[in-house]
Design a protein that fits this description.
With 74 residues, this protein is an alpha+beta fold. It has helices at residues 10-21, 26-33, 37-57; strands at residues 5-9, 60-64.
Amino acid sequence: MELEEIYVTLDELEAIRLADYEGRYHEDAAREMKISRATFGRIVNDARHKVAEALTRGKALRIETRENKKEDFE
């Protein structure tokens, strides 16, 4: 049985790392990523949704990089 995969971008991974792993405030994390606080909020919200879906629905998380785009696996 192969697990369905959910793709997480590098920006989403970085947002999760800064906000949840390091406990940074959104404003500080956004500054480090060189994006607006509102954009950071959207990115981290999308990432958290994907992680929650993977955990609650038994799906695999795949980190999408420049080398392995989602389209390459479809």
